[in-house]
Amino acid sequence: MEPRAGVSKQDIREQIWDYMESQNVADFPRPVHHRIPNFKGASHAAEHFPRLQAFKMARTIKVNPDAPQKSARFFVLNSKKTLLVPTPRLRTGLFNKITPPPGATKDILRKCATSQGVRSYSAPIGLDSRVHVDLVVVGSVAVSEKGWRIGKGEGYADLEYAMMVSMGAVSEGTPVVTIVHDCQVMDIPEVLLEDHDITVDYILTPTRVITTGCERPKPTGITWSKISHEMMEKIPILRTLRDQEKQAGKDVTLQNEHWNLLESGSQRAAPTSAVRPPQDTPQPEADSMGAARGCLQREEAPPAATVYVGNLPRDARVSDLKRALRDRGAAPLWLTWQAPQCRAFLHYQDPASAQQAISCLQGLRLGTDTLRVALARHQRDK
Q1: CA 24, chain centre distance (Å)
Q2: 55 closest CA partner among 204, 218, 264, 253
Q3: Is residue 173's pLDDT more than 80?
Q4: What is the pTM of this model?
Q5: 61 - beta bridge partners?
Q6: What's residue 327's pLDDT?
Q7: Which CDD domains does the UniProt record give (predicted)?
Q8: Strand 149-150 relative to strand 176-179, pairing
Q9: Element containing residue 177 per DSSP (H, E)
């Protein structure tokens, strides 16, 4: 598949998701939008996995918990290798080790490889376990034959890999595999890649095995300047890794550490002298912009312009909108999320920034719905 001209990462994600649904190659859970998409033929694509030399040599393999990699997890267990899966959203640690019951049959192993089995037959692995991962399997929304990868946009796979580097679980030579449908293999403009993006060495599809020979360096550890205080609060293990690296003398300054994060409700972690938003400006909700980047507000004046975003899908999540805003280069200082009304308000520093954001967001879609974007009513009245 060829990407559209002048695309962003989010454009590519939407193109893949739309195509997989329209061509009925998508598989449960559906719709595949905002997911690592499952597809018909995923188990067939995974049959290439145990034939890889990297698989045969590996003793410990980390596999993401998404549906398209279920068969890959089964093959690891069936080969009596150690299977590690990331904990959901990294909230309770980095890895869980899957331990099947003694004498488990293939049917039991298949159950262990499901999301339910991961919950039922796993135990957390601590940072002090000195685990060494020989092979990594990640999910992808899109991937190029050069080994460049786009995930679903939340950044967890990239962060997981960076954390594994920081704790010494992987090295520069640790192979990375992804399992996708053939339609997910496409050219990806190099300009979209960032230093923290993980690349892949092998791409497995239902019809072929692609050895990428990727020469682009993989992440060499956690880029702390891209980690927000919000992310630190959500992922406790990051705090432990940061303390370790700080003691080792590394620069662990967080993203915009001199700014103030928005806290829950309409309250802020700013000094008491900080200016509150005007009364006719919608108050910010607890959910601030960006998991890995964070939504921050300066201690100076509040934003002087607010943008209305309407026609949000009823099943849309605030993370979907935040990701789309980042990809369009229109991230606000903060946003107000009003799901029952299917709308949101974006708060910018000044009217010029708001007008620029409106231009950038024209034609923006979440799923199949085109969003309405305009100055908020009280701004238009002025």
Answers
A1: 24
A2: 204
A3: yes
A4: 0.67
A5: 83, 135
A6: 80
A7: RRM_MTHFSD
A8: unpaired
A9: strand 176-179
